[in-house]
Specification:
The chain is of the alpha+beta class. It is built from 2 helices and 8 strands. The protein starts with a strand and ends with a helix.
Amino acid sequence: MRFAQEVSFSQGTRLFEEGGRADRFWIIRTGSVDFDMRVSGRRAAVIESLKHNELIGWSWLFAPHAWHLGAEATSPVRAYEFDATTIRLMYKDDPALGASVAQ
């Protein structure tokens, strides 16, 4: 948690888009976020909804570090944000930590 930054998102804020660079992740403190997939000619299809204490986004952990889905705040959200590069460097220094997170 020493690397966490507190952030807030308004309802309707896009956290990231499918195909974008996955350079951070979040743990939700309050609110909810929907993962979605763009479908040509239709509204985005909601794949999953996340809430309190859930981690948003795993794409930062695996090369090529690109988002596989999009994410949107469906209510006001408060979260802890982590820089992916910093956390990946921690894993290099502590392989046991990296292995425990990736399981």
